[in-house]
Amino acid sequence: MMIGLKDRTAEPFGQVPAFQDGDVTLFESRAICRYICDKFVGQGNQSLMGPEGGGAAGRAAVDQWVEAEAQSFNPPSTALVFQLVFAPKMRLKQDPNATRDAEGRLRKVLDVYERHLGGSRFLAGEEFSLADLCHLPNAHYLLAETDRGQQLLWSRRNVARWWEEISGRPSWAKVVEMRRNAAA
User: Fold this and answer.
1) The CATH number of 63-183 is which of 3.40.50.150, 1.20.1050.10, 1.20.1250.20, 2.40.40.10?
2) Its domain of life (predicted)?
3) Distance between CA atoms of residues 52 and 158, nearest Å
4) Is the separation of the CB atoms in 50 and 115 below 8 Å?
């Protein structure tokens, strides 16, 4: 298995992430995650695609929150990460209107999460799943590198509790450390 491709033409958009495992080539991060979960179902965290014995309903609960991340959380959080983290590093002018718009949209999403997480330990139920995992990268950038992101997440008690739990996992600490070492 490898992340990235020897043959860049195999990824139709010419971007990363790209993933190759033998004859299987995938290019969308959530599809890559689902593939790895299914291929290695007997290893690691058994509940990533739904609770044991949860059947179709358990998997659907995970899928709906993975889609909520992709469709509702990711667009405004990506815009904020770009405007607040990467634009300054790239010496690009920040767009206050884009920042304000993204922050407003993300605030609405986090309000939905706050209500939902008031009755659920994690997004798809009582066990950590792919739905939670998909939120880690952008939320990490927002919290680690921006005051605005901290205000958005920490001002919501249930979201803050959820974030503490998912970001405090040893596996995520390893990812953060690998990123830090790669940047050094």
Assistant:
1) 1.20.1050.10
2) Eukaryota
3) 25
4) no
Token code pair at residue 92: 């690009």
Alpha-carbon span 79 to 183, nearest angstrom = 22
Residue 19's DSSP bridge partners are: 3, 26
pLDDT of residue 38: 83
- Angle, helices 147-154 vs 96-117, to 10°: value is 30
Residue 71 CB: number of other CB atoms within 10 A? 10
What superfamily would CATH give domain 2-40? Glutaredoxin (3.40.30.10)
Residue with tokens 């979201």: 159
CA 41, 43, 45, 47 dihedral sign is: positive
Instruction: Report whether pLDDT(8) > 60.
Output: no
CB 131 within 8 A of CB 65: yes
pLDDT of residue 113: 98
Domain boundaries for CATH 3.40.30.10 within the chain: 2-40
pLDDT, one tens digit per residue, over 57-88 is 999 999 999 999 999 999 999 999 999 999 99
DSSP single-letter state for residue 14: S
Helix (H), strand (E) counts: the chain: 10, 3
CA distance 151 to 30: 27
Those residues whose C-beta lies under 8 Å from the C-beta of residue 67, and which sit 6 or more positions away, are none
